[in-house]
Amino acid sequence: MAAGVVLTPGVAQASGPAPAAPTGQGAAAGGTVAGTDAARKLPGKTFSSPADRTVLAPKSGERAGVAAPAPGAKSAQGVQGSREAQGTQGAQGAQSAANSITIGLYATTVNAHGVDLQTIVIPSINSTLDVTISWGDGTSDTFSATLNGFASDLRNTRHTYAAVGSYDIKVTAKDAANAVEAVNQVQFVTAGAEFTPHTPTRLLDSRAGIGTAQGQVAARGTVALKVAGAGKVPAGVSAVVLNVTVTNTTGPGHVSVQPAKDLAETAETSNLNYVAGQTVPNLVVAAVSADGYVYLFNAGWQPVDLIADVTGYFAPSTASGYQSVPQVRAVDTRAGIGVSQGQLDGQSSLDVQIAGTNRVPQGITAVALNLTATNPQQDGHLTAYPSGQAAPTTSNLNFTADQTVANAVIVPVGPDGRITVRNGSWRPTDVVVDVVGYYTPDSRSALVSARVPFRIIDSRKDSWGRTAGPIPARGFLALSLEGDVTTPEVDGWVLNTTVTNTSGPGFLSVDPDPNLWSAYKNGTADIPQRPVSSTLNWTAGATVPNVAQTSGGKGGIVDLWNQGWQDIDLMVDLLGYYESK
């Protein structure tokens, strides 16, 4: 059997004698530590309505006008600009600047459901103003300000929406004594987006001319893939779940998936890596451009074929939120877990009960899995799809004879709460299915996608307070993702993990840490229990990626375990996070 694959709970197979665990840099034996408030490093998106869009309420016998900007009023910025105001400039003369109010609005996303609204209110004469912020969800906030003429009241007010979506924020300023009222408004879209499953569908296959011109993607070439409007993916989606596969490779390289061509071609991160002769899949949760595209860049120096299958999308509207669970093994054909013991025959399938088992409730729409093939007798692939449907022409992972390979999967569940896993090879293979989370209409935990994924950790370099150096054999990296907190705000992290510089076989485990960050800093952290699940598997000389969806521990810490007997290098890229606030 392949080295490093968990056979039964608490028992893992690995090659070579068991050396004593080395002591690393951190407070726990065998561990190293690194910390960053990762979620807060994602820039917020700003929506603006500048002061020159302020509308004055009409007096008796007058028409409504646009208030003249006060001296020094903040200029237009953000995503909206002031084009709407250009056609109303002539109306400014209908109102006297000697008796007016201007309001500038700048709304910035701060988390999945929250907005930070900056208001700049400027009267043209001495005024006592009563200001009302209507948030667009039926709630409002008020404040008062007494100002000398052309003095300004600048303040920030935060608000949290119960549900993700698009909201019209309206701000009204009244000067009752001078009979002046002004209004400005801005449309705000939450950063958080909820998930809608999609029947596995092929959107891109360069071999067949699906989604792009037929023919291999050139060395250093980019594919512009239309996502919104393709298949049954609607317009307005903010992120998409794709299973991306590279095949027919003749040299080494990597693939980056981004919402813009220039971002893909200059990315410091990667979604999957390959060498000559490999077929490599990886799950990608990618931000989508405003016009509905994602861009796939072949960073290698030889042409390749690219394939992309969609299994779901995220949009700023109520659908299904995420809920993580402690990673649990639902199926292991080697041990008879979840199914009868014995390999899955070629061209055969097995049904997996997801809903109602392993802490997963009924009524879910999709499940997040780690799917592994091991001990295959011949080259082939595995496909996961909703039960009760015909097998799609897509795949989730590809394998060669005797290979152990894993891939993250987000797959819709059938009406009976099951999924089906099909072995596309002509010969048997063992199959392992680990559940890491699920999507349900009962959850409001929404995805905040990193428009530009960024690298949190690269063990080959100094990063986030950690000195460069490999992850020790049988050791772990304790990665703080929320700073020093005792009540994490993030419900789950979407991380692309990549292992490289391997000199022997092994596997990576990703698990919440039971300690607080302060315990690591003062040297009192307890050594976490070694997990038995695997996120990705490697062999000597391989560079292997896979997505990990995981919650943090009570202190917002995630442990990344090197379960091999040789040191490795590890890279971790942040793709996004789930948050219910």
In short:
With 581 residues, this protein is mainly β.
Notes on the protein architecture:
The protein has 581 residues and is mainly β. Helices cover 3% and strands 46% of the residues. It is built from 3 helices and 37 strands. The strands form 9 sheets. It has a 6-stranded antiparallel beta sheet, with no helix packed on it. The model is unreliable at 1-29 and 73-97 (pLDDT under 50).
- The percent of residues in helical segments reads under 10%
Low-confidence stretches: 1-29, 73-97
Strand content: over 45%
Class by SSE composition: mainly beta
Give the overall average pLDDT: 88
**Largest sheet data:** 6 strands, antiparallel
| Rg from Cα | 27 Å
Number of helices: 3
What attributes characterize this protein structure?
581 residues; mainly beta; 6-stranded antiparallel β-sheet; 5-stranded mixed β-sheet; 3 helices; 37 strands; 46% strand; globular; disordered N terminus
